[in-house]
Amino acid sequence: MERTTSVSRYHSGVSPYGVYDMVGNVWEWLATPTDPGRYELRGSAFTSPLFRGVPAVPNDADDTMHDDDTGFRCAATPEQMVPRRK
């Protein structure tokens, strides 16, 4: 497939913590600088060669880069979650 997929598409890839798509959908920006103006990316993307599909494989990019295979993950602790109102 030559594009991103919905987060819950591949149930076989869910982590023991219930997290989907840690590898292979899009490179995810981290807040970790690698050099001035550059930040770490993790997770590989749908455009990456198969050998790059490991969560720990490092990559980085210029902070002004805009690409269709790079994104970010929203995360919160359970304490930060607000219950939905019905």
TrEMBL record:
InterPro entries: CTDL_fold, SUMF_dom, SUMF_sf. Residues 3-47 form the Sulfatase-modifying factor enzyme-like domain. Pfam families: FGE-sulfatase (PF03781). Coiled coil: none annotated. Gene3D superfamilies: paralog of FGE (formylglycine-generating enzyme). SUPFAM superfamilies: C-type lectin-like (SSF56436). This is Sulfatase-modifying factor enzyme-like domain-containing protein. It comes from Streptomyces colonosanans. The lineage of its organism: Bacteria, Bacillati, Actinomycetota, Actinomycetes, Kitasatosporales.
